[in-house]
């Protein structure tokens, strides 16, 4: 992009002519003031060149495009009324009367909105009153669309609140301003209609009772839906259409969000009311579906856009907020939340202050991936536009930012709070460079703002993309409130970066521009689609000529258009690099399903949760981790429920056991012959102390042939000496009745357990245990871990230090796996956890374990690991591993060069450990800085307030200026460098190759995992679940995960399967996932079961895949199996008692239709060698 000089383009339009600094009385209310700064692009006079319209404090400015990036101010000649200090906000270009030319509708703050009718030659007449569009409210913007598909364009008007600052406050000074402010706080933003001065005065004089401070801050106003009567007038149908939520709206974008053929509305709201998604019911009404469709939203949502950024045929959503990217600004602007806290009852607890990029998952649910894509923090942001700027066929993201003043700067807020009302505030415009993020494909973006020429600092709000010079690439027009507009000329065509297709729509009747039409292009296996709604971003209208970048494609396989009435036209072999005109009259009969949501006929799984009888619902006891551990990044007390599958009553059927939270009894569900499950009400599982089941495992510890239950207990809510810290055993009588052992089968194991896994590691015929210790008494110091050896009679002793030196305090363990990594028939121990590397303790064959993490090439894998599981994913005869990590969709972005570090010691000498998490925000400064804000750090270390009583001072200080270097040198210190969930490919020589899982597996923490061949292609596939709702309060929660099916290719690579094709979705705070053999599933007798924190367990049946069969493996006699395929490949499968995340699956082997032989082993001994009989 090249910025066109002011002398060349000639557009002199300052949206805010009022000079700063504002008087203080005005400034104190500008946090709820929306500056007028709209930008609209379109050919107003029919000469083939797009003209420009701007809005601002003085009304509108119309600029004719004379070609060659030169413009002429024709505002007065065009018949536009020039206002003085009349606050014009959003500007919309629309052919409202269907005569083929563009009219102008402008929203004005608490003044009647205006409608300028075009005579076709760029001359306008104001006709809002005649059309009944002279709405009087705190209107922000409007969008026109045919919501009832009657052929006429209706109008949705976004309104703000009843107390915003408008031009009246800018006309006075001192006491006059204060009185005007007080009056405006009492006015109600009830929609009214009128154009006379008397009616305006009546509106200003209307008063209601004073509102209390919280009501003043959070009171909003309902938006307005105006139906086109088809006779040149509109009528208010807001309440009939169920548009009734009162909110502080800032933008609205229209699109067919659920792909049912009806236009829906996304409304971005400021402050207290979360963003709204109005789904069109098709009967003239809308249903609010935001709770079902999105898991979170911005707090101060400003701009919004709907488009398919990853070319999967599904509309995605982007919104903007005001989180700074710069570290110093972020910390300086992070003050006490006060009544604006996200935990205040007037706020939605799922709102968070940052930009959101909502990825459509194909099942009418979205995942926010803002952090992962890098767009989350762009400062005080407004317009956001998904648009292909480099012609590579992928939509990039442009974001404009800036404001009237840096009102979130906490030092500034502190100072102005001590000034008198008529003093100048010394406020200055907040000017920052705008952002553009290049789409790299898939769901990956990179910040190319400076590289693409957008390094200019400005206070920018509105923006529009438009091909101003008709050269085939899209230019950018950016409105500023501190300067004249910026015009950026795109040089993509000139530089031959790619090809393009421009599409002009010729509609019919009252919709001459084809608003609501969908256009799809296909070329070389690629596909893109656009929906014709020019109002996007913030206060702005794009040119209505649709634009596609086509990369290297010069001829398109097809161009398909579906008009709002469903009529369709398909054109084949369409040359690129042209303007293609599509006319409604050329379209054929309606074919509405062409753009519909995909519904595969045979998904891999079917949700059978409602029919299995597994109605277990986990409930957590009340405990606030953050009162005990203020600086912990994720709650430790919400780790459950653990889940285990095995036959507990000896009837040959898999049963399911769920561990309970503190004081809640462990639950057993017995499988019956029809395949349903029934809760065992009297299984004898009430424990003596009412402790918490952290992890569980079902194994035969006493050699009597039945599964006993071992519960690894503890918890961060207990003290070390509490009895609740003791793990314990339930002995099975063989019929599913359990008795809690009182004879001391377990030693005095006191730890906050996070995992328990069992195996006979020493070949003596008795199962041994590993219990991994999680968070200790003071975060981040770990609890103790244990290796417990079985004496053959079901009694265990602690042998950790003698057989595995260094294991007892290895770290905050989250998961472990007994596995033979090197095929020497001796079980090794793989351990993973927080602030530790993937750690391998190798069994040397004598029952002694040696930490060979460095030798295995795993010493640089320090992360926040949560799960580990094993399978032979590359069919080479040894076990590979998948490990779940925190993922990339968070603010903890780590690398070898810039790790996320933790430093822990009693830095302020008050008797408690102070854990400080740091990162490296400045490339030019190789020093760590504190990640958490000043308020949080001072709550942990109040004495720092004496040294850092200003926010900027604290924000600017690297760690060694906050904590003495001597204290840091002796602190407990770890550096995390790898946050991606990954596959460890076994090289066969006790070394591994690390391969990150696909990006879709990185959008949330990855917890539960299960391996099996889902599609009978002889390759191991992977099912994962995740999320963590208990994140630190300024993150709220990690909730982008919906569960994921990953198809393996047999070489260690995995491909994510869309939810509709997978049929598997678990969008909750899901922990473990287990596999059970289910006699009720006749096709393939396997069912996946998920364990959900503070939610209900789910069940998914694996659908029929011809030819596969299921073999049960008894881990008491089978350590592993080897499957030999017809082509000679061999796949190893191990039998685990504990894997994934706090889970134990039934040991089952899925045998494919092309398996020639299955050999079962007890270590090196062949237990069974059988040829597979073909069905």
Automatic annotation (TrEMBL):
<dbReference type="Pfam" id="PF07593">
    <property type="entry name" value="UnbV_ASPIC"/>
</dbReference>
<dbReference type="InterPro" id="IPR011519">
    <property type="entry name" value="UnbV_ASPIC"/>
</dbReference>
<feature type="domain" description="ASPIC/UnbV">
    <location>
        <begin position="514"/>
        <end position="581"/>
    </location>
</feature>
<dbReference type="InterPro" id="IPR013517">
    <property type="entry name" value="FG-GAP"/>
</dbReference>
<protein>
    <recommendedName>
        <fullName>ASPIC/UnbV domain-containing protein</fullName>
    </recommendedName>
</protein>
<dbReference type="InterPro" id="IPR027039">
    <property type="entry name" value="Crtac1"/>
</dbReference>
<dbReference type="InterPro" id="IPR028994">
    <property type="entry name" value="Integrin_alpha_N"/>
</dbReference>
<dbReference type="Pfam" id="PF13517">
    <property type="entry name" value="FG-GAP_3"/>
</dbReference>
<keyword id="KW-0732">Signal</keyword>
């Amino acid at each position: 992009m090249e910025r066109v000089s002011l002398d060349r383009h000639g557009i002199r339009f300052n949206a805010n002519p009022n000079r700063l600094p504002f008087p203080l009385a005005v400034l104190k209310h500008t946090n709820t003031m929306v500056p007028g700064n709209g930008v609209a692009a379109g050919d107003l006079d029919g000469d083939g060149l797009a003209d420009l319209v701007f809005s601002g404090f003085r009304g509108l400015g119309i600029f004719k495009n004379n070609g060659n990036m030169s413009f002429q101010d024709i505002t007065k000649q065009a018949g536009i009324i020039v206002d003085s200090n009349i606050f014009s906000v959003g500007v919309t270009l629309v052919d409202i009367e269907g005569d083929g030319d563009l009219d102008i509708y402008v929203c004005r703050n608490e003044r009647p909105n205006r409608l300028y009718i075009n005579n076709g030659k760029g001359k306008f007449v104001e006709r809002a009153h005649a059309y009944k569009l002279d709405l009087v409210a705190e209107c922000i913007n409007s969008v026109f669309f045919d919501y009832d598909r009657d052929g006429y364009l209706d109008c949705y008007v976004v309104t703000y609140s009843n107390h915003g600052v408008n031009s009246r406050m800018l006309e006075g000074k001192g006491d006059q301003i204060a009185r005007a402010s007080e009056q405006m706080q009492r006015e109600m933003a009830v929609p009214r209609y009128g154009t006379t001065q008397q009616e305006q005065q009546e509106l200003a004089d209307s008063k209601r009772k004073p509102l209390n401070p919280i009501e003043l801050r959070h009171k909003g106003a309902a938006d307005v839906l105006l139906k086109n009567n088809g006779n040149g007038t509109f009528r208010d149908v807001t309440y009939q259409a169920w548009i009734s939520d009162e909110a502080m709206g800032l933008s609205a974008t229209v699109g067919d969000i659920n792909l049912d053929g009806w236009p829906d509305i996304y409304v971005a709201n400021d402050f207290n009311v979360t963003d709204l998604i109005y789904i069109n019911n098709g009967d003239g009404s809308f249903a609010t579906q935001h709770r079902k469709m999105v898991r979170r939203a911005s707090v101060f949502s400003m701009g919004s856009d709907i488009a398919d950024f990853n070319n999967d045929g599904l509309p995605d959503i982007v919104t903007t907020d005001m989180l700074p990217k710069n570290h110093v600004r972020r910390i300086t602007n992070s003050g006490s939340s006060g009544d604006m806290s996200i935990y205040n009852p007037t706020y939605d607890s799922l709102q968070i202050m940052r930009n959101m990029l909502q990825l459509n998952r194909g099942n009418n649910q979205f995942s926010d991936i803002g952090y992962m894509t890098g767009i989350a923090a762009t400062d005080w942001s407004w317009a956001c536009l998904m648009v292909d700027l480099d012609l590579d066929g992928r939509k990039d993201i442009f974001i404009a930012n800036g404001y009237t003043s840096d009102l979130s700067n906490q030092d500034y807020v502190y100072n102005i709070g001590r000034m008198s009302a008529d003093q100048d505030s010394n406020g200055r415009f907040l000017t920052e460079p705008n952002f553009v993020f290049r789409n790299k494909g898939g769901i990956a973006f990179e910040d190319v703002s400076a590289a693409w020429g957008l390094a200019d600092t400005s206070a920018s709000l509105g923006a529009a993309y438009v091909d101003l010079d008709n050269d085939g690439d899209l230019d950018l027009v950016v409105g500023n409130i501190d300067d004249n507009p910026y015009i950026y000329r795109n040089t993509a065509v000139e530089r031959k970066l790619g090809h393009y297709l421009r599409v002009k729509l010729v509609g019919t009747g009252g919709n001459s521009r084809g608003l609501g039409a969908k256009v799809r292009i296909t070329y070389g296996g690629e596909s893109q689609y656009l929906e014709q709604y020019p109002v996007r971003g913030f206060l702005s209208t794009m040119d209505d000529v649709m634009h596609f970048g086509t990369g290297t494609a010069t001829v398109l396989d097809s161009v398909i258009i579906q008009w709002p009435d469903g009529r369709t036209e398909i054109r084949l072999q369409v040359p690129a690099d042209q303007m293609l005109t599509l006319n409604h009259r050329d379209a054929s009969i309606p074919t509405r399903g062409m753009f519909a949501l995909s519904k595969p006929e045979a998904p891999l799984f079917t949700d059978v949760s409602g029919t299995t009888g597994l109605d277990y619902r986990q409930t957590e006891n009340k405990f606030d981790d953050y009162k005990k551990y203020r600086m912990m990044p994720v709650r430790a007390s919400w780790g459950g429920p653990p889940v285990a599958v095995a036959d507990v009553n000896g009837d040959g059927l898999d049963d399911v056991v769920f561990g309970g939270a503190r004081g809640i009894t462990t639950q057993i569900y017995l499988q019956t012959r029809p395949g349903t499950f029934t809760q065992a009400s009297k299984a004898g599982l009430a424990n003596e102390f009412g402790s918490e089941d952290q992890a569980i495992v079902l194994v035969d510890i006493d050699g009597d042939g039945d599964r006993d239950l071992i519960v690894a207990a503890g918890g961060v809510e207990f003290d070390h000496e509490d009895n609740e810290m003791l793990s314990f055993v339930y002995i099975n009588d063989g019929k599913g009745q359990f008795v809690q052992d009182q004879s001391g089968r377990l030693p005095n194991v006191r730890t906050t357990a996070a995992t328990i896994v069992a195996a006979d590691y020493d070949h003596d015929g008795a199962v041994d245990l590993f219990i991994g210790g999680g968070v200790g008494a003071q975060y981040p110091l770990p609890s103790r871990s244990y290796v417990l050896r079985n004496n053959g009679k079901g009694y265990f002793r602690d042998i950790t230090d003698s057989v595995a030196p260094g294991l007892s305090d290895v770290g905050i363990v989250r998961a472990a796996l007994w596995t033979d990594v090197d095929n020497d028939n001796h079980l090794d121990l793989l351990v993973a956890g927080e602030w530790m590397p993937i750690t391998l303790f190798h069994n040397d064959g004598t029952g002694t374990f040696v930490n060979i993490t460095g030798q295995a090439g795993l010493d640089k894998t320090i992360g926040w690991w949560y799960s580990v599981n094993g399978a032979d994913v590359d069919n080479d005869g040894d076990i590979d591993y998948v490990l779940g990590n925190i993922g990339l969709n968070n603010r903890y972005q780590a690398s070898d060069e810039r790790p996320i570090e933790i430093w822990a010691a009693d830095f302020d000498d008050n008797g408690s450990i102070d854990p400080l998490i740091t990162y490296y925000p400045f490339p030019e400064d190789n020093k760590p800085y504190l990640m958490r804000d000043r308020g949080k750090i001072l709550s942990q270390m109040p004495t720092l307030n004496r040294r850092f009583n200003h926010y900027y001072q604290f924000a600017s200080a690297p760690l060694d200026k906050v904590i003495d270097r001597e204290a840091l040198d002796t602190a407990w210190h770890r550096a995390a460098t790898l946050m991606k969930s990954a596959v460890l490919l076994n090289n066969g020589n006790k070394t591994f190759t690390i391969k990150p899982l696909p990006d879709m597996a990185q959008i949330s923490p990855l917890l539960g995992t299960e391996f099996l061949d889902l599609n009978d292609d002889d390759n191991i596939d992977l099912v994962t679940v995740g999320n963590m709702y208990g994140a630190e309060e300024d993150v709220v929660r990690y909730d982008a995960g919906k569960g994921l099916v990953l198809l393996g290719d047999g070489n260690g690579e995995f491909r994510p399967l869309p939810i509709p094709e997978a049929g598997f979705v678990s969008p909750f705070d899901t922990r473990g996932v287990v596999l059970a053999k289910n006699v009720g599933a006749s096709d393939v007798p396997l069912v996946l079961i998920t364990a959900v924190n503070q939610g209900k367990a789910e069940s998914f049946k694996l659908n029929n895949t011809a030819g596969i069969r299921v073999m049960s493996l008894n881990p008491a006699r089978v350590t592993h199996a080897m499957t030999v395929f017809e082509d000679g490949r061999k796949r190893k499968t191990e039998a685990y008692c504990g894997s994934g995340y706090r889970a134990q699956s039934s040991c089952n082997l899925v045998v494919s239709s092309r398996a020639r032989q299955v050999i079962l082993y007890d270590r090196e001994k062949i237990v069974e060698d059988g040829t597979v009989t073909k069905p």
